[in-house]
Amino acid sequence: MKKIIALSLATLFFVSCKNEEKTTTEEPTISEGSVDGTFKVDSTSTVNWVGKKVAGQHNGTIALKDGQFVVENGKITQGKFILDMNSIAVLDLEGDEKLSLEGHLKGTAKPEATDHFFNVAKYPEASFEMTKFENVDGKDMMEGDLTIKGKTNQVKFAVNLANTDGSVTLTSPEFEINRTLWDVKYGSKSFFDDLGDKYINDEIALQINIKGIKE
């Protein structure tokens, strides 16, 4: 089986401590036409991912299984999102190659590779729970606890909020996380010395697309 790339689901793009003296914090707001209320995550919501290695890269999606967020006075005050790790999909391959990589990422392909990446039989869900939402230098930033494979780390990333046809969309620009913080170490040269040019990057890129329907 071709051993191709990995992903893992967060240290997201942190605001540099070195620039704190220049940072200004403003009230975050949803774009024009925003509405307040509690919003349930729609089944079409996804997290896009890109994983890279020396020889190239792969990309795909993970579906959101459940979740909701609360908007008050144009600001997100609460939010929790559940990801269905069994839904990991590879979009840039087809046929047997696609199934092989998806099985490797899920840990369902071979018994000896069960825990190489996400071991979805043992850890079928990942979650993100927001702890802070603020505007920093004109950018709305979401901060919270990301749990994958039973491990929790705090992450922070930029988000864009908009009201469209009665629903609220929460999206992000692409940002990077370090998979090894969640014990996804397969192919990482940070932990293995004999990989040569066969290593997989510790960092993966994520991009969030969440649609919220008002309850």
Summarize the structure.
The protein has about 220 residues and is mainly beta. The chain is about 5% helix and about 50% strand.
List keywords for this structure.
single chain; mainly beta; 215 residues; globular
Characterise the protein shown here:
The structure is a single chain. With 215 residues, the chain is mainly β. The chain has one helix spanning 95-106, and strands at 25-26, 37-41, 46-53, 56-72, 75-90, 125-136, 139-148, 151-158, 160-164, 167-171, 175-178, 200-214. Strands 1, 2, 3, 4, 5, 6, 7, 8, 9, 10, 11 and 12 form a twelve-stranded antiparallel β-sheet that branches. Strand 9 and strand 10 form a beta hairpin. The radius of gyration is 18 Å and the shape is globular. The N and C termini lie far apart (46 Å). Residues 1-25 have low confidence and may be disordered.
Along the chain, the helix and strand elements come as EEEEEHEEEEEEE
Radius of gyration: 18 Å
Low-confidence stretches: 1-25
The tally of beta strands, per DSSP, is 12
Amount of helix: under 10%
Mean pLDDT: 86
General shape? globular
**What proportion of the residues form beta strands (DSSP E)?**
over 45%
Distance between the termini: 46 Å
Given the helix and strand composition, which structural class is it? mainly beta
Annotation field: number of helices: 1
How would you sum up the major sheet? 12 strands, antiparallel
